[in-house]
Predict the 3D structure of the following.
Amino acid sequence: MMKLDFDERDLRSLRVFCAVAEAGGFAAAERKLAMSKPSISRHVREVEARLGVRLCERGRSGFRLTPEGDVALDLASAAFQALGRIRPEIDAVHGILSGRLAIGIGEHTLTHPDCKLPEALTEMRRLAPGVEPQILVMTFNELAQSLNEGRVDLVIRGKYTDDRDFFHVPIYREIHRVYVADMVEKSKIPNLPLVYRQHPYVEQAIRSGRYHRGPNAAGLDSVAAMVATGFYQGMLPTHYGDLIKTRFNLTIEESSPVFQHEGCAIFSTARPISQRIKVFLNILKRVHSFRSERSSG
């Protein structure tokens, strides 16, 4: 069996390869790394030579990872994340909190009146000035994926199902309803298609048989814009709907179902929780003072 002892240059080249893979190609990685394409190519070739396999295909057909490249990316990313935790975890032993705190949130999270993320970050800064927060806005599906892959420390997102892989800390409640434009005649509303976006409540509404699937939308603004035309219905969180309904003449559809869930700070149970995450979770609980239905008996 071949033994691989990576030196500092090998690790540097491996980081470059990871950056190329995550960026989706050499051209995008140039901007991310501030390196020339020939230099990036040299690093990737060195990693391939070191491992003895081809990690990616590049050419006129575009960039894509080989099966070996997929494995290398997953393992290298996990290794670099582990290396990045060494210093902060050692600092924590001495009572010093440091390192990155990556938080994933969905679009328009801060429009919820009960979401006090900025207040929590302010308190974290006061208690642990050595911790550097990083806020990443993602789609619903990207939040879970990023948490599973360890690209974020925690996410703020709705809890829709019980999942043993995640631990949920409730911080507020969110309600979703179906909206229509004021101009639409009541008799025509049942025939309007429901704008589709990847979300559990939209899927549930369509499965109920009351709504038929309409065109795809990538986010809340897209849904709202299409509903405002009068040709569609759309599922929106009520706190977001309250912000735009007057300007765009939207209203909650009379027979709309009511979907609600707890908005939670969520972290993975698959890896040890760091001290800085523990501190931040305690801050979130304190500033929100939220009592879930389950805990209220």
Remarks:
- The first helix runs from residue 8 to 23.
